[in-house]
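Field log, afternoon session.

UNIT: design team B
ACTIVITY: writing a sequence onto a fixed backbone
BACKBONE:
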């Protein structure tokens, strides 16, 4: 049985207090929201904080607000709440589809939006117990020096496995970061970099406080995910797409974001631009899907063959764009066991 290491638990009642504790403790401390990723990692000794700062008692982080300008979602809103809230069954559909496909019902009841945004990167060589990792002299991400995915690399190639981040980036989301009494708002896409260890650009002591979404009136969005087991696994490749249409069905704005093919979500900007001023015809979709797939360069860091993951990227971008077009995607959904009602 894998057991948690010893740690101190702090339970602040405001985000200012939580960020002050985090800033004071430095690298020895980590934030605990739902704990669905952090606690298993601690059992495997992948992450070994001496202090956990629980956000459970901060009520402001559990609230959602909607108005004409968009939505504001507290970092501790659970994925189950997002998946079950009918207010996301519109232009925000990509977000509820992403949330609904994370793990199982029990985990979604605990897992939070902020936690999924900050989800640790994953790799077949890293996501093992301590003894297994010790047998290969560990890896660059924890306790070792070599990235076994790419032994000649000078950086870690662990893959981003968050479901909600690609969806949120496609929706133009911004995040509010809190550090003591100070706050800053940034595009969610600017919070990530393509490095499996230093994958988030948060400052020391900063806590994700809120996710801010613009109004998506006139937009449609969708999220499609490839995983080993259709019932609960992490993504090994995903696609989020969003588009705003004219009354005639012509694409006026578009975003396509690929997930789980690099250490950060990748925006396929050129593919999205190719859709502008055009209806989503079969030819338009095929061209954009081919263009987006060129961006995907997955490595041998999951349990799926990397060349196959790249090949099916074209198909998944096609699924997402057909979804935006309004096609009946029930057969594809059943085949992939998406479990989206």
């Amino acid at each position: 049985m894998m057991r948690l290491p010893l740690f101190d638990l702090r339970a602040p009642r405001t985000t200012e207090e939580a960020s002050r504790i985090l800033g004071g403790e430095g690298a020895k401390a980590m934030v605990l929201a739902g704990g669905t990723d952090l606690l298993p990692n601690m059992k495997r000794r992948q992450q070994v904080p001496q202090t956990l700062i629980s956000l459970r008692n901060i009520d402001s982080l559990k609230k959602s607000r909607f108005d004409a300008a968009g939505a504001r979602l507290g970092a501790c809103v659970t994925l189950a709440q997002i998946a079950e809230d009918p207010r996301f069954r519109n232009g925000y559909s990509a977000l509820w589809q992403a949330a609904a496909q994370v793990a199982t019902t029990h985990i979604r009841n605990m897992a939070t939006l902020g936690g999924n945004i900050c989800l640790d990167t994953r790799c077949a060589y890293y996501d093992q117990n301590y003894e297994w990792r010790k047998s290969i002299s560990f890896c660059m991400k924890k306790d070792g020096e070599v990235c076994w995915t790419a032994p000649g690399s000078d950086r870690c190639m662990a893959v981003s496995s968050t479901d909600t981040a690609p969806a949120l980036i496609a929706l133009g989301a911004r995040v509010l970061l809190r550090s003591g009494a100070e706050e800053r708002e940034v595009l969610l896409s600017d919070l990530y970099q393509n490095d499996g260890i230093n994958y988030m650009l948060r400052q020391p002591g900063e806590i994700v406080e809120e996710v801010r979404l613009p109004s998506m009136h006139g937009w449609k969005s969708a999220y499609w995910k490839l995983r080993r087991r259709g019932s609960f696994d992490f993504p090994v490749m995903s696609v989020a797409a969003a588009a705003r249409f004219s009354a005639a069905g012509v694409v006026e704005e578009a975003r396509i974001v690929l997930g789980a093919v690099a250490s950060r979500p990748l925006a396929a900007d050129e593919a999205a631009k190719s859709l502008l001023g055009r209806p989503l015809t079969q030819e338009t979709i095929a061209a954009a899907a081919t263009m987006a797939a060129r961006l995907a360069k997955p490595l041998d860091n999951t349990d799926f063959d990397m060349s196959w993951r790249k090949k099916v990227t074209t198909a998944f971008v096609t699924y997402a764009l057909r979804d935006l077009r309004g096609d009946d995607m029930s057969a594809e959904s059943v085949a992939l066991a998406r479990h989206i009602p």
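LOG NOTE: The mean pLDDT is 96.
NEXT ACTIVITY: expression trials, pending approval
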